[in-house]
Amino acid sequence: MRLRALLLVSLGLFSGACSGKVTAPDALPKQEMILAGVRVTLEANLVRDFMPMAPADGRPMLATFTVRSADGVPLPAGLVMTSAAITFGGETWRSTPAIVPMSDPTILMGQSRDGPKWGPGGSADVVVTLEAGGARGQLGAAQQPIRRTD
Known about the structure:
By secondary structure, the chain is mainly β. It is built from 1 helix and 9 strands; from the N terminus they run αβββββββββ.
């Protein structure tokens, strides 16, 4: 009986390790963490453009990632957003966000353009990877709506 239980647990761990994707919202990183002594949060905005000058099936996704100091203190010096992953319906889009210049020292904003043509109307899970002063961490935001502009 013990051998059977051990085998079932091992198979479950092996299959989960091979999946390479987020399988449940509780597997996402938290939406808030402390990085280099500063508590930071993540906001994500996922948009597809369907304005009249866009193609009939809309433009590819534009993702905006906003990392904020939760306490209003400046973000750690040298904070960088190294990667982003958006998962929708079993598919994952990975990108390196371009940093948007900001004058507010409590905000780091990144954008990824020309993503997939998912949605609009569905929800996706978002993960960004941050680095500062030798520290590295991930922030997540579950079930972010994919919006459309008309």
